[in-house]
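Schema walk-through. Below, the input block comes first and the output block second. Nothing else is stored per chain. Lengths vary across the set, and this one has 100 residues.
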Amino acid sequence: MIKQLQIFWLFYKSFAVASLFFTLCCISLFWKYEFSVFSGIFWFKFFTGMIIYYFVNDFRKKEYYFYYNLGISKRQLWVTTLGFDFSVFILSIILISNVK
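--- output ---
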């Protein structure tokens, strides 16, 4: 289990900076405008996640063989890492709404 988490983390690190940047943009907008912009930042985060998926999928497609040889499919990689990323986004929104 820990080995799989390390493998998922290795994959997530390849696009974590871009993803966390967009999350911080969403959090700053939520901090300023609160729930009036929630649907907008939700869809912004969703679409930027899909753009990240497209670029990583296109430019790093040969790396999937590495993960496949470790027993992890492409679908498992994306579901786990995008699920983690979206969870970070939702938890950040919850924390910001409780702080304010």
